[in-house]
Write a structure and sequence with these properties.
The structure is a single chain. The protein has one domain: L-fuculose-1-phosphate Aldolase, CATH 3.40.225. Helix content is 41%, strand content 15%. It has eight helices and eight strands, in the order H-E-E-E-E-H-E-H-H-E-H-H-E-E-H-H. An eight-stranded mixed β-sheet has the order 4-3-2-1-5-8-7-6, with helices on both faces. A hairpin with a 4-residue loop joins strand 1 and strand 2. The chain is globular and about 55 Å long. The protein starts with a helix and ends in a 9-residue tail after the last helix.
Length: 232
């Protein structure tokens, strides 16, 4: 039995959730799961249809993006995952999709405003959209630089990756993360739903007001923090 089987299983199960949740078309997406003690992560192989995946096909990669185990080429987004794992040490899983509504907001180069309590249940901030990558970064190591594009956006906006577990990459698409690959998938589904709701909100009322701070605080704290009381 491979010493990496546990993260291969975790990555496989999480990847298989993406088509079930309507977050990917064809092979437009990937999930990875990390083992920090071993210094590696398991990620979907590049361009392989979801129905052809298995745990054994998940590629094992180190934090420099080099393949450690596996015969298939890892996802083309592997270096982005590697950069985030290397610098954001409390991430356990990462998801990248081209889900329709999240990607539409990314292509619009707009943060997703906090319009309602569904959004506030998950985060107090707007969902950030990183500015489009500079030409120098594009001409360099593109996927590697995407990791820094994400981190630079968080630094510039004063956001914590532990509190805001999602981002839109301008003109590209969403990335999400979490303490586990499952949580990263959950965050990806939340982002897509909130993106759809925000679009519909602006269509119904282009002057829709943002959710007031008191409601943002109330709904976030119901689910998070020392005095949370949502759930069993």
């Amino acid at each position: 039995m491979s010493k990496y089987q546990h993260i291969q299983e975790e990555a496989y199960k999480a990847n298989m959730q993406l088509p079930k949740l309507g977050l990917v078309l064809f092979t437009f997406g990937n999930v990875s799961a990390v083992d920090r003690d071993l210094g590696v992560f398991a990620i979907k192989p590049s361009g392989v249809p979801y129905e052809d995946l298995s745990p054994e096909k998940m590629v094992i990669v180190d934090f420099e993006g080099k393949t450690v185990e596996g015969n298939l080429r890892p996802s083309s987004d592997t270096l982005t995952h590697a950069v985030l794992y290397k610098h954001w040490e409390k991430i356990g899983g990462i998801v990248h999709t081209h889900s329709v509504y999240g990607t539409a907001w990314a292509q619009s180069q707009r943060d997703i405003p906090n319009y309602g309590t569904t959004h506030a249940d998950h985060l107090t901030a707007d969902i950030p959209c990183a500015p489009p990558m500079s030409d120098d970064m594009i001409l360099g190591d593109y996927e590697y630089q995407t990791g820094f594009q994400i981190m630079n956006c968080f630094k510039d906006k004063g956001l914590s990756y532990e509190e805001v577990e999602m981002i839109l990459v301008g003109n590209h698409a969403p990335f999400t993360w979490g303490k586990t690959a499952d949580k990263a998938v959950y965050n990806s589904a939340v982002l897509e739903t909130v993106a759809k709701m925000a679009l519909l909100t602006e269509q119904i009322n282009p002057q829709a007001p943002r959710l007031k701070d008191s409601l943002i605080k109330k709904h976030f704290e119901r689910k998070h923090g020392p005095n949370s009381y949502y759930g069993q």
